[in-house]
Every structure is written in C-alpha cells, then in structure tokens.
C-alpha cells in the first residue's frame, strides 16, 4: 500500500509542470515546459528544444525533436490529463515547425489533431492562425 502510494505520488509529480507560451515573429504560440524541477528531463529537453529550434528557424530539427517528444509522451505512464495536454502542445509546436518549413498539409494536420486532444486556447490560436495564413 505504502509503496503504491509513493509510486502514485512520484508519477503525479513526474509530469506536474507548467507550460508557457513563447510567441515567435509570426504570432504563432510555441509552448515550453517552464518548471524543470518537476518535469521529467526526457520530456523537457525535446519539448523545449522544438520551440527553440522553431525560433531559430531550424524547422527540420524542430520537427524531429517534437516527434521524439510526442513518442516519449505516448509511452508515458504519467497522469493521463497532463500527458494529453503535453501531447497536444507538442503536436501544436510540431505543426508550427512544419508550417514554417512549408509542409502545410502535415502542419495543419498536426494542429487539427492537437485541438482534438486538448481545446487549449494556445493550441486553438495556432490552428486559427494557420487557417488564416493558408486561407482555409
């Protein structure tokens, strides 16, 4: 019982992190994990690296590390709601990277999937922005 409780607490704090948005020049919102103390390093590094690579206009690298973050999140056994939210954020970030790399179909697909997972206002903003930009 005690061991199970400790395991539950550990998993709870494992993904307890806050995500913040950083705006790039085109007004897309990129999400990053702010709380490095409680965020798992294996998620935090690729997650934040994706946003930084988009900011640096390294779109192919951004896409690759976002894809890695998404794969890691899919394997996570952390709190379901937090994993879903972070997956949505990672998909949104990857969608922005793909749009910036002129991979419009893949980018818009990521953004639609992100909104289906979590109707977060930042994710919804990115989808709306992309639809305006692509005249959809």
TrEMBL record:
Keywords from the UniProt entry: Signal
Domain of life: Bacteria
Signal peptide: 1-23
UniProt-recorded name of the protein: Tetratricopeptide repeat protein
Organism: Pseudoalteromonas carrageenovora IAM 12662
């Amino acid at each position: 019982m005690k061991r199970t409780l400790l395991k539950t607490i550990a998993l709870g704090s494992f993904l307890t992190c806050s995500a913040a948005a950083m705006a790039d020049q085109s007004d897309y919102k990129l999400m990053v994990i702010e709380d490095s103390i409680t965020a798992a390093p294996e998620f935090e590094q690729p997650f934040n690296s994706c946003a930084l690579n988009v900011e640096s206009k390294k779109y192919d690298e951004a896409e690759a590390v976002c894809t890695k973050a998404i794969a890691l999140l899919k394997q996570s056994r952390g709190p379901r709601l937090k994993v879903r939210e972070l997956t949505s954020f990672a998909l949104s970030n990857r969608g922005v990277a793909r749009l910036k790399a002129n991979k419009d179909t893949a980018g818009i697909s990521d953004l639609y999937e992100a909104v289906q997972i979590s109707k977060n206002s930042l994710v919804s903003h990115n989808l709306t922005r992309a639809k305006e930009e692509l005249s959809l």
